[in-house]
Amino acid sequence: NAGVMQNPRHLVRRRGQEARLRCSPMKGHSHVYWYRQLPEEGLKFMVYLQKENIIDESGMPKERFSAEFPKEGPSILRIQQVVRGDSAAYFCASSPSREKLFFGSGTQLSVL
Amino acid sequence: AQTVTQSQPEMSVQEAETVTLSCTYDTSESDYYLFWYKQPPSRQMILVIRQEAYKQQNATENRFSVNFQKAAKSFSLKISDSQLGDAAMYFCALDQGGSEKLVFGKGTKLTVNP
Lengths: 112, 114
Known about the structure:
The complex is a heterodimer. By secondary structure, chain A is mainly beta. Chain A has no helices and eleven strands. In chain B, strand 8 and strand 9 form a beta hairpin. Chain B has no helices and twelve strands.
């Protein structure tokens, strides 16, 4: 059973470009979470999704950020018109229930 | 609002010795979970240990154990017989009952000296 797969592992974008981060949850997991880790900080919750539904997006910035978890395929975190402050590690986690999260290895986004 | 505080930005320990990492938290809920995660340089977040708040018995996983003091809202991690592979960032996290999101502390960087 493969773990949570995130790609790309590293992503470099110039200011104003779009960033797309992908996450494939573990087999059988229907809950997906995205977290952001700024340098020297702990992870901060962004959004919680189930298939085709956003359950809680209270941690998402109001503009430029969106997330989806379609019926087929990976979950996508999309950041439009990136700025330098978006540079961070973005982690995806999946869970069969709320009691244990399994994290991916993260995508390091660097904005030039 | 829930908060998690790790007061030790860095800690070091000699190989084979014991080290304790501190964590305090604040929540108004009575039903919650507490976690310790390890983040090595590979960046992978690895679950070390989990504690349900309603359980009085402290959780243990091999060389890792916790001291859970619910009234004091304290949740420290003890690593016994430290190994070089234990070197990593350690994050304490709180999952409030009914919520689907973890609140993390800022982490403690553990160095293991040979």
